[in-house]
Amino acid sequence: xxxxxxxxxxxxxxxxxxxxxxxxxxxxxxxxxxxxxxxxxxxxxxxxxxxxxxxxxxxxxxxxxxxxxxxxxxxxxxxxxxxxxxxxxxxxxxxxxxxxxxxxxxxxxxxxxxxxxxxxxxxxxxxxxxxxxxxxxxxxxxxxxxxxxxxxxxxxxxxxxxxxxxxxxxxxxxxxxxxxxxxxxxxxxxxxxxxxxxxxxxxxxxxxxxxxxxxxxxxxxxxxxxxxxxxxxxxxxxxxxxxxxxxxxxxxxxxxxxxxxxxxxxxxxxxxxxxxxxxxxxxx
Length: 284
Known about the structure:
Blueprint: E1 5-11, E2 14-21, E3 28-32, H1 46-49, E4 54-58, H2 78-91, E5 97-101, H3 105-115, E6 120-125, H4 140-147, H5 151-156, H6 163-171, H7 182-192, H8 197-225, E7 229-234, H9 242-246, H10 248-251, E8 256-260, H11 267-283
Parallel strand pairs: 3-4, 3-5, 5-6, 6-7, 7-8
Antiparallel strand pairs: 1-2, 2-4
Helix pairs in contact: 2-3, 3-8, 4-8, 6-7
């Protein structure tokens, strides 16, 4: 295990904070977090992989310790976030790398893979969706905002930004809620409570429809390039359903699909199992 370094990169004027561990000449693994979290969600996983891999976990723009530019200066869309992280990989010297994608990290990482199929060596998707059948009814209020971006529909989504909802996201579907540390969710709530963070997150809820629109392009990439693929899924996730994990095999028959008896934030309870699965998968 190597020590984690806490660094920042200037990505064309946007300061991106990231965690890095492992030898610079080791095979690289890019970890992409989801909502409402940041790279800290990988705090247990990084030490379990850094003896063998160069592991890098950036905070997406608007999240964690990365810059949160004003909404007038920066468009909070998944296209824009993917552009920043794509450029980030170049700045930190990732020419070829595997990606671990979770939640918002999936449409970010899949955009990068579609743009640079020669650079992405393998994909690990932990509750990172690319299929309509993976979307649960929990998306209904967000879909309503896609179809009618009214002030009332936007206001209704603020319920997703409360500490109570964050706690629910971390503990729903977990066999023993007492096994989930309060640290990660407390940090997420701190970031969500910053001035302006709510409007940034509401913008991204609205733009998530662009990810669904790109599902056919992502699926075509899986069919065409058949990247080595591991879908490792908290099967009790209230947002991303098990059929979304199984669907990867439709376009990439060699994909490995594994389910864990836990919820959305599977690393909170199953970091050891996920790390072991990743080490086995990438060693092939």
